[in-house]
Amino acid sequence: MNLFSEIRGLVLDALQQMQSEGALPEDLNFDNVTVEPPRDPAHGDMATNAAMVLAKPANLKPRDIAEALAGKLAADDRITSAEVAGPGFLNLRLAPSVWQGILSAILSEGTDYGRSGMGQRQRVNVEYVSANPTGPLHVGHTRGAVFGDALASLLDYAGYDVTREYYINDGGAQVDVLARSAYERYREANGLSPEIAEGLYPGDYLIPIGEALKEKYGATLLDRPEEEWLSEVREFATERMMDLIREDLAQLGVTMDVFFSEKSLYGTGRIEAALAALDDKGLIYEGVLEPPKGKTPEDWEPREQTLFKSTEHGDDVDRPVKKSDGSWTYFAPDIAYHYDKVSRGYDALIDVFGADHGGYVKRMKAAVSALSDGKVPLDIKLTQLVKLWKNGEPFKMSKRAGNFVTLRDVVDQVGPDVTRFVMLTRKNDAPLDFDFDKVLEQSRENPVFYVQYAHARVMSVLRRAAEAGIDADEATLAAADLSKIDHEAELAVARKLTEWPRLVEIAARTHEPHRVAFYLYELAGDFHALWNRGNDETSLRFLQDGDAATSQSKMALARAVAVVISAGLGILGVTPAQEMR
């Protein structure tokens, strides 16, 4: 049930009546007519821009349209007043019975309240994390993993058919570095001193891989030249690192549907096929790029390369796909990978990249636009850096990882629920400070605690009701006399609950799961405010001594809050708290 959509439907019906009566032209487009919360809650419960957006095409004054529309809307039992404001905005106030009915709907629908069919089961591929398989996931990957996973859950909740995908970057030179690093740990396992030269990975996480190599090969690799062992060790180490990465993701509650190997694109004709598809569109040519803007590097020289006409699809410059020596650029396999995704029939693609990939956005969007003839949109979301703090100081790097803080370091400190929620307390493209002390505080300043505490408070009320012998199951509460929910503080909470379905659709449309975390914090704030008022006004308490019927009506409100918090936390991948300890 989406009350904002229902009231918008009421507005559209009234506008159509005005058309049939000749008060409005027949050919008006109502697509831009909205119904949303007013900027100032004192102005009403909802506001519509109908008169403002229709005035020019209708060749009428906005206030004239608004006043006529107000008369139509006021005839509906759900509308207690329709007031014209300013040049032609229309503010609506709804009857208390509307808010009371929302509570019944929430209790009847459960966590499906707010679930939307907006996506119409369109197929969306969300690619995230996609870290090189050369080490454990670090805190930057953690943010991308949480954001991508929450976005995938949000889109699923909004009616899309979502695939979660991890692109394994196992086709470049970095996996050769991994193999050489693992080989040194293999030598160490055989009693020799490892030679961790500059450029190799120094982390202790490779020690078990070295030991596993010894278990498999004994000492047989020690006297063989690199060209004989490199391929085997590379494959072995990559598989073991991906096992470690899967375990890291599991610690965070992230499960992928697809793991796609970059290596599978090489030597299989798939890169060539993708570039041939672009060539068939006249988008591949041999040419020489202009020198970089600004100071020209000393080693830069004009040379002919194979180029993609990415400028024809919105990029700033054309991009090389093959070097002058005939080898592929890094961009070529990425084109082939996205060609594969387009070929799998997705209606939309989403890539979640780290902040250091900002320069890659336009070229990748250009490639997908060209490959799909503009039919498959690609949205690239960049996740900014995370700064870790503890005891007022930057959190030290992990010896196990060698030079960074790992995902497991973070989860071991605060748990997966806190990690996930905190990572979503800022928009993805804004920097995030993660203070290990503050995220464990039990205060309003800690949004994780504040939201979890609201849910736990509702659970405590239901347990006390059971102890008092009051039925508090959802069916009983949904059937309670909800007309007893009539205090302004109670109705304010009900109004906030009404915003949930609309919020879900906005967050899904904009690909911004942080909006869910923000909403939950606001809802928790309204609930805590009502709870605290009940300390002074006994009539607002959720359990009324000796009055089971009134208690059930008030518990219906509390239970509805818990249902929506549970649904929202489910999208974020956080388990609702049953009690706070």
TrEMBL record:
Leader sequence residues: none
UniProt motif ('HIGH' region) ranges: 131-141
Protein species of origin: Ruegeria sediminis
Domain DALR anticodon binding: 451-580
Broad class of where this protein is predominantly found: cytoplasm
A molecular function (GO) term: arginine-tRNA ligase activity
Subcellular location: Cytoplasm
Domain of life: Bacteria
Assembly and binders: Monomer.
Top-level EC class: ligase
Matches recorded under Gene3D superfamilies: Arginyl tRNA synthetase N-terminal domain, HUPs, Isoleucyl-tRNA Synthetase, Domain 1
Protein name: Arginine--tRNA ligase
Enzyme Commission code: 6.1.1.19
PANTHER family the record matches: ARGININE--TRNA LIGASE, CYTOPLASMIC, ARGINYL-TRNA SYNTHETASE
Residue stretches making up the Arginyl tRNA synthetase N-terminal domain: 5-94
GN (gene name): argS
